[in-house]
């Protein structure tokens, strides 16, 4: 991967300029474990999307394709809305216990 990143600035002036500016924000959003009362434990990846002036943030949770959590999240689309209640977000340490 390092070799590709090192080679790209020489191949693309646009990439070189973007790489120098580092326009991507560095807010880390760790994976989350959410215990849903009906679906059980969901292990989700997290992305934070920030507008340019950072006055708003959208947090998106997704389950890796093919994972158990992904399959669980598909269940409501199959069975429909039958009163699935709100989930509780827990820290990874709390979810393990």
Q: What is the strand and helix layout of this fold?
A:
Blueprint: H1 2-11, H2 13-21, E1 32-36, E2 40-50, E3 57-62, H3 68-79, E4 88-90, H4 92-96
Antiparallel strand pairs: 1-2, 1-4, 2-3
Helix pairs in contact: 1-2
Query: Termini separation (Å)?
Result: 37 Å
Q: Order of strands in the sheet with the most strands?
A: 3-2-1-4
3D shape: elongated
What proportion of the residues form beta strands (DSSP E)? 25-35%
* String of helices and strands: HHEEEHEH
Report the major sheet. Answer: 4 strands, antiparallel
Q: What share of the residues lie within helices?
A: 25-40%
Low-confidence stretches: none
Structural class: alpha+beta
Number of strands: 4
Mean of residue pLDDT values = 78
Number of helices: 4
- As a whole number of angstroms, the C-alpha radius of gyration is 19 Å
Question: Descriptors for this entry?
Answer:
single chain, 97 residues, four-stranded antiparallel β-sheet, 4 helices
What does this protein look like?
The structure is a single chain. The protein has 97 residues and is α+β, with helices and mostly antiparallel strands. The chain has four helices and four strands. A hairpin with a 6-residue loop joins strand 2 and strand 3. The protein is elongated.
Write a concise synopsis of the structure shown:
This protein is of the alpha+beta class.
